[in-house]
Design brief:
With 1180 residues, the protein is of the alpha+beta class. The chain has ten helices and 52 strands. A hairpin with a 5-residue loop joins strand 46 and strand 47. InterPro entries: Adh_isopep-form_adh_dom, AgI/II_N, Antigen_C, BspA_v, Cross-wall-target_lipo_motif, LPXTG_anchor.
Length: 1180
């Protein structure tokens, strides 16, 4: 989105009670360092509506601790001893081992220290073992050499004895061996001779057997030849029988072929008959189908004739209904016109004193009031000469009606007068001597209608219920009045007789209107009738013929083909196999052996050498004491309410996060822990929830200071737990600091310090520094200047809005016309949320867009949603629920609470779009940083005539509200005027007198279309309805009111003749004059130029009378009416007959004092008022 800067201006929030309220807010980029900001630097706006406080720079404690992240100071040390190590050293020294001791060695764990001691103990033990082994090896070698010398002497004696015996044994063995070989050779020769004799006998026997078999086989061959001849004769007889059977089969086949021939002919005859029957059947079906087709044509013809008749009847009915509607419309129009005419007639009644009370007895007053239906009330007082003693009141009604005439005049008809009641209210004692009072009502003919004597001291009321007939008619032309009409007289006779008159007057306020002609009432049409053509009779469907089946002759059974005889094979006797001729045997030779005598080898004695005697060795070993030192680390992390690690992430403002302080376990071998304390200077804008923190970290004592620093000390029970088993490792409970983020564009670095104290030492370690961010930062002032920013898309969170014309160009700040359609393009700003990590509880607060329009100007019900699309082109209309909010009181409690918490302030009516499924919407568009663009159109309210038209937008993201810019358009008042001049450029003669034959000029002052407007001109027109019966149109002209600039740069100077750019039409029959500028010319007028023209219409007065004239002005479809001008033209003047002065009647005594002067003044005032009414009538 665009980056806003404050240079003497800012965004505004709209209020409907107070207009535009400036909402400039300054926000500074927060970094962990101490960067200075110049007073001239541009600071970004913060358009937030809730949690608007800006994050302050880090404190010195925060900055210092962050710079020390990961550093350690001090150490925790304790010595480690081992009994086995001590014993091993003593034993080694006693064994002669040289034991030396080096400096003390420090280990980071008890197990490591113990392992070191164990290793030393092992080395010392090994040295001791080696020393003792060396001593034992020397003694063992000396002893072994003595034993070897004796063994060598014994070995020599043993070998000598063995050699003597060996030589004697070898000689005896050789002699026995030679004798044995000689005996074996003799036996072998004898066996070979026997074998050769047997082989010769076997060979000769096999030759004799072969000769015997060959003789027997010759006899077998002779017997086989005889058997073959007998078999051949039997085979010839079998073959002759086989051929005879085949001939019989062929005969039967020939007979069956003849039978098939006869059957085929019978079948053909049956098929011929079936075809004839089927043809006759199908012919009858075709006849029926043809008749049905003819009947269908007849039906269609009848339907067409009926449809034509129906159409004619319908057309006649429509014509009748149209004529009837025209008739009814004319009747209704005439009735409405007459009703409207009659409603414009004024009726009045007044009391006029015909006599006056005697001044001696004081003034008497009589008044009259009336209603439009003719009801009246007359009131008068009674004076006894000193005071008012009572009041009289007469009620009644003038019964009248009106008739509208064809020429536009009205006839007022007074039918009668009804007198209802007379009542008298006494208010004081009558002090007059003469108390004979009479109240009377007298007709204009002098007839007494009612008389009531009384003394003036008693209150009474009487019902008269009397009606007198009047039957008077008065015709009133438009804008004319009747003279005062006397209907009756009232008398309150006392000492002196006084009376007053009831005067009625009518005034016709209507303009002259043409007579409405009612056409004759149409007669309903008589529907036409059609006589249908009768259909042809359809014959019955024929019976389908049964198939004719022929009587077929069965064929004879053909015997099976006999099996072809196979020639028998004679039973031939097999010849005996003749053995192969044997191989003549070879002579067998015996295997004779020879003897080699053995030679004796004497034994040599084995002499053992002496073993080596080891040298004496003194072993040396190095040992050292050990101690344990531990430097436990600490780690800080930050998670959201979903337990997701958000270190380095962009998260929502207002979301709950937890800083987790984790310390490494205390190792075994430690000293007593006297104190364990954590210090955490929390970043500004993180609101700690102490209750939730204490719940999650019950083992710690929590304290905070005004700067937000949190101190957490291990409780006594936790210290006791640390010191219970110091030879074992013990874990340190995690601390969870729970709270919420209060700033837009927030950077929350957080580091904590751990201090561990023992009786002899103290150890301090600084944690790492995780960081989280909230969106809304100005990208021109990055959080990490010159480095990688974790939120490259981060910027101000602000919905934007513009208003565009039909070409999509911005028209913000420009003027519009009353019939304009205002199209707003607003953007719900999500790009700064790209890559955000938000917990479920934040997402489920939802995403809402609000369009807050000016109620007085914009018609909220006219809204058209042109489109709602995401930045990737998705149509998201169906993902949002649209609500037209007429008042915040109509919202449900959840939305009320959400709007209140968000801090947005829409006033009156507004629209809101709510994401139906917040989680899916967040994942698909918010987290991807895809802005949502709303294209909305509104119309202006008809009653809104002029002023500024404002529209503002808000967005609610995860419970946070942000206001957008206010777009403004101006609706100027379309003011046009009309005047009548004695000549073009002359003097105004409005309400003046014009003679018959004089020329007058009507000036039509056009509206000046302002510059900086949002629209192009396509219509600028004057329409003047001249009174053609009195004014004869002569000519016209049109001139520029202002300098006009065209698209090609041409400037038409003020006062120039613009006739060439206009079209003029005058209708002689109706008197309508119309001057319109050509559209192609108007299209050339640039928006940056003013435009305005005055038209002058010159006419000649041709008839006497009052001539009224009003014009209509049109600009781009907007109609404006001018004021009405009037001129008067009198008939030729007639001589005036002088009237004689009527002498003033002498003053008569009356019932009140000084009555004459007051009634005289009243009469004069009444006459003046009547004169003023007459004058106003002419001016109007």
């Amino acid at each position: 989105m665009k980056q806003m800067e404050t240079k003497g201006y800012g965004y505004f929030r709209k209020t409907k009670a107070y207009g535009l309220v400036c909402g400039i807010a300054l926000a500074g980029a927060l970094t962990l360092g101490t960067t200075s900001v110049s007073a001239d630097d541009v600071t970004p706006l913060n358009p937030a509506t809730n949690l608007t406080t800006l994050q302050t720079p880090p404190t010195a404690d925060q900055t210092q601790l962050a710079h020390q992240a990961g550093q350690q100071s001090g150490e925790l040390v304790s010595e480690v001893s081992n009994t086995e190590w001590d014993n091993a050293v003593t034993t080694a020294q006693e064994a002669g081992v040289t034991v030396k001791q080096s400096d003390k060695v420090t280990h980071d764990s008890l197990s490591s220290a113990q392992a070191d001691l164990e290793k030393q103990t092992k080395a010392v033990t090994e040295a001791t073992t080696k020393q003792e082994a060396n001593k034992a090896a020397i003694n063992q070698a000396v002893s072994e050499n003595k034993a070897i010398d004796q063994a060598n002497r014994d070995e020599k004696a043993r070998v000598d004895a063995l050699n003597t015996k060996g030589e004697a044994d070898t000689k005896a063995k050789n002699e026995a061996g030679q004798a044995q070989v000689d005996a074996q050779n003799k036996q072998a020769q004898e066996a070979a001779d026997a074998m050769n004799a047997q082989l010769k006998a076997d060979y000769e026997a096999k030759l004799t057997e072969i000769k015997q078999i060959e003789s027997e086989n010759e006899a077998i061959r002779q017997r086989n030849q005889q058997a073959s001849q007998a078999t051949h004769q039997a085979n010839q007889a079998a073959q002759a029988a086989y051929q005879e059977k085949l001939a019989e089969i062929e005969r039967i086949k020939a007979e069956n072929a003849t039978i098939r021939d006869r059957n085929a002919k019978a079948q053909q005859e049956a098929e011929r008959q079936n075809q004839a029957l089927q043809a006759a059947y199908e012919a009858k079906l075709a006849e029926i189908k043809q008749i049905e087709a003819d009947n269908e044509a007849i039906r269609q013809s009848n339907q067409a004739a009926q449809a034509g008749s129906d159409s004619t009847n319908e057309q006649r009915q429509k014509e009748y209904e149209a004529k009837l509607a025209a008739y009814n419309q004319a009747v209704q129009a005439k009735a409405e016109a007459e009703k409207k005419l009659l409603n414009q007639v004024d009726f009045s009644i007044e009391a006029k004193a015909n006599g006056v009370d005697n001044t001696k007895y004081g003034n008497s007053i009589m008044t009259a009031t009336t209603q439009s239906d003719g009801s009246f009330v007359f009131k008068h007082d009674m004076i006894d000469g000193q005071k008012t003693i009572g009041y009289g009141k007469l009620t009644g009604k003038v019964n009248h009606h009106y008739v509208a005439n064809k020429d536009g005049s009205i006839t007022a008809v007074i039918d009668s007068v009804t007198f209802n009641t007379y009542e008298y209210e006494n208010v004081a004692k009558n002090s007059a001597v003469n108390k004979n009072i009479v109240f009377r009502i007298v007709s204009i003919n002098g007839d007494e209608i009612y008389s009531k004597p009384h003394d003036g001291e008693t209150t009474f009321k009487e019902s008269l219920n009397k009606t007198i007939t009047v039957n008077k008619e008065f015709t009133l032309q438009p804008h004319t009045s009747t003279p005062n009409i006397q209907l009756f007289q009232l008398h309150d006779d006392w000492i002196y007789n006084t009376h007053g008159s009831a005067l009625v007057a009518y005034k016709n306020n209507n303009d002259a209107v043409p007579n409405i002609v009612i056409p004759s009432k149409p007669v309903p049409p008589t529907p036409g009738k059609v006589t249908p053509t009768p259909e042809k009779p359809v014959p019955p469907i024929p019976v389908k013929p049964e198939e004719v089946k022929p009587a077929l002759e069965p064929e004879k059974q053909v015997p099976a083909i006999p099996e072809k005889p196979i020639d028998s094979v004679p039973n031939v006797e097999k010849e005996k196999p003749v053995p192969p001729t044997p191989v003549k045997p070879e002579t067998v030779k015996p295997d004779l052996k020879s003897f080699t005598p053995e030679v004796y080898d004497p034994i040599k004695p084995v002499v053992k050498p002496h073993v080596t005697v080891p040298e004496k060795v003194v072993y040396e070993v190095m040992v050292h004491p050990v101690q344990v030192k531990q430097t436990p680390t600490n780690v800080k992390s930050v998670t959201n309410s979903d337990q997701v690690n958000i270190d380095g992430q962009l998260v929502p403002k207002g979301s709950m996060v937890t800083w987790e302080l984790v310390n490494a376990a205390l190792k075994a071998g430690r000293q007593d822990i006297t104190s364990y304390e954590l210090t955490d200077p929390l970043p500004d804008g993180f609101e700690l929830d102490v209750t939730a923190t204490q719940t999650l970290s019950p083992e710690w004592v929590i304290t905070t200071d005004e700067a937000g620093k949190v101190s957490l000390k291990a409780s006594q029970s936790l210290l006791a737990h640390f010191n219970a088993k110091r030879d074992q490792e013990v874990g340190v409970p995690k601390v969870s600091l729970v709270g919420r983020l209060l700033n837009d564009a927030g950077t929350y670095h957080n580091t904590f310090k751990t201090v561990v104290t023992t009786p002899t030492s103290s150890y301090t370690v600084i944690s790492n520094t995780p960081v989280i961010y909230t969106p809304g930062n100005d990208p021109k002032t990055p959080r990490n200047p010159g480095g990688d920013n974790p939120t490259p898309h981060d910027n101000l969170i602000q919905p934007t809005k513009t208003i565009v014309d039909d070409k999509g160009q911005s028209i913000d700040g420009k003027s519009v016309l009353p019939n304009s359609t205002l199209t707003y393009v607003a953007k719900q700003d999500f790009d700064q949320y790209k890559g955000m990590t938000a917990a479920k509880e934040s997402v489920m607060k939802g995403f809402i867009y609000v369009d807050d329009y000016k109620d007085e100007a914009i018609d909220g019900h006219s809204l058209i949603v042109n489109s709602i699309k995401a930045a990737n082109g998705d149509d998201v209309t169906n993902l949002l629920e649209m609500r037209h909010v007429l008042s915040q009181d109509t919202l449900d409690d959840k939305l009320k609470a959400l709007i209140k918490a968000s801090g947005i302030s829409p006033v009156g009516e507004f629209y809101m779009w709510v994401a139906k499924a917040p989680a899916a919407f967040y994942k698909a568009y918010v987290q991807k940083g895809l802005d949502i663009t709303y294209n909305l159109s509104f119309k202006l309210k008809q009653e809104f005539k002029k002023g500024d038209i404002t529209n503002q937008t808000y967005q609610l993201d995860m419970g946070n509200g942000y206001y957008g810019n206010v777009v403004v358009n101006h609706l100027p008042e379309l003011a046009v005027h009309k005047d009548v001049l004695d000549k073009e450029g002359g003097q105004s003669i409005n309400a003046g007198t014009v003679k018959v034959g004089d020329e007058v000029t009507y000036r039509l002052e056009g509206w000046v279309v302002p510059t900086n407007r949002s629209y192009d001109l396509f219509e600028y027109k004057f329409v003047d309805q001249l009174q053609q019966t009195h004014d004869l149109y002569l000519k016209d002209s049109v001139v520029a009111k202002v300098d006009i600039t065209l698209s090609d740069g041409t400037v038409i100077a003020k006062g120039s003749n613009l006739a060439q750019y206009t079209e003029t039409v005058y209708n002689k029959e109706t008197g309508q004059y119309e001057l319109a500028f050509k559209q192609d010319f108007l299209a050339k007028v640039v928006r940056s130029s003013e435009f305005g023209a005055d038209a002058f219409v010159v006419v000649k007065r041709i008839k006497a009378g009052d001539v009224y004239n009003t014009a209509d002005f049109f600009v781009n479809g907007n109609k404006v009416k001018t004021e009405t001008v009037v001129t008067h033209t009198s008939e030729n003047p007639r001589p005036v007959t002088p009237q004689k002065a009527t002498p003033k009647a002498p003053a008569l005594p009356s019932t009140g004092e000084q009555g004459g002067s007051v009634l005289t003044v009243l009469g004069a005032a009444l006459l003046s008022l009547l004169g003023l009414v007459g004058l106003k009538k002419r001016q109007q």
